[in-house]
Specification:
With 187 residues, this protein is α+β, with helices and mostly antiparallel strands. It has a domain at 73-187: GMP Synthetase, Chain A, domain 3 (2-Layer Sandwich). It contains 4 helices and 7 strands. A hairpin with a 5-residue loop joins β2 (44-49) and β3. α1 (4-21) packs across α2 and α2 (74-97) crosses α3. The termini are far apart.
């Protein structure tokens, strides 16, 4: 068996101690920003992902809104964010609980009704109406089923994106127009 769970537990203990002493260090900035590739193209753009702009991710407008096929849309990225967050939360919880994962996959599907975006029907809300996350998990033979249940409950409790989607949250939008002072839109 790998020493990774033991190393992980030691690292988390160190971080817990640090954040108890210095809680301000526990606040983490996450970020993404789009990059202006071609201002004339209404269908394609690129985003830097990560506070340190580690990854470049191209995206396209939803096909159902007139965008091209064959690329990830912002809605797809939201599904990917939830899938990745749940996968990460499960892996971290498994390490905390000593559960060995043999295989793990998370698939998230979401349903929107684009009549709201296209202003066809003002009664149809803009945004996802439903998200479904399917977790496919295999654990090592002989793993205590109660340990798996505790691990999954811990993962659900500690999944950042899932927790964010489940609660109402203010989103502030700041617009900078032609390099003038920014103004804010109502949340």
């Amino acid at each position: 068996m790998s020493d990774r769970p033991t190393e992980f537990a030691a690292a988390q203990d160190t971080l817990r101690n640090l954040y108890q002493i210095a809680p301000e260090m526990a606040r983490v900035r996450h970020a993404a920003r789009t990059v202006d590739r071609d201002p004339a193209d209404p269908h394609r753009a690129t985003a830097w992902v990560g506070a340190d702009e580690a990854d470049l991710l191209p995206f396209v407008a939803e096909h159902e809104l007139g965008g091209p096929r064959g690329g990830a849309s912002p809605s797809d990225m939201l599904c990917a964010a939830l899938a990745a967050s749940q996968d990460s939360a499960i892996r971290l919880a498994a390490a905390r609980h000593g559960v060995r994962i043999a295989a793990l996959g998370v698939e998230v599907s979401g349903w929107t009704d684009v009549r709201g975006v296209l202003a066809i029907d003002r009664e149809v809300p803009v945004g996802f109406q439903t998200l479904l996350s399917t977790v496919r998990l295999e654990v090592a033979a002989g793993t205590d089923p109660e340990a798996v249940q505790r691990m999954l409950a811990d993962a659900e409790r500690t999944c950042i994106v899932l927790a964010t989607l489940r609660r109402a949250m203010s989103v502030y939008i700041r617009i900078q127009h032609n390099a003038q002072a920014p103004f804010a839109l109502a949340a």
